[in-house]
Amino acid sequence: MQDITTRSGELNEPIEDATFESIDGEVTLRQLFGGKRDLLFIHNMGKQCAYCTMWADGLNGLLRHLEDRAAVVLASPDDPETQRAFAESRGWKFRMVSTRQTSFNRDVGYESDDGHVWPGVNALYLKDDGEVIRTGKDEFGPGDVYCATWHLFGLLREGVNGWQPKP
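Given the sequence above, the corresponding structure tokens read:
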């Protein structure tokens, strides 16, 4: 079995609580933990991004396994109704929240000053005293370890060969 190197604990950054919109109403960051200590907060650029859609499609297949260990939420700047409709069209089972009326993406480094959102993931931990800390983070991008598609295409004779995901 391959040794798995953990990145847990590399960061120890306090994260301010935030309130998000969801299809079920407002929810706080702390509530997203749902009784678990760990939360994978997936930053997605929304319905308009074919790349983010592909990452979410792949992670959706892992969701049961991920949720066995940690709470998982997918966040995008889309409004909750758009998220719900798009998730249903893709068969996604994620809990979803909208970051559209918050500074959360910017506060945690996933949005530029001009409002451009980047995809990635934050690993968050809920301490006994209710403080939320970031223990890990990473960005999503073509060829990363979070999307098997690139690696499988890498086995083909001509590799990725300019392929891009379709919406």
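Residues 38 and 69 are 8 Å apart (CA to CA). Try to locate this feature in the token string yourself.
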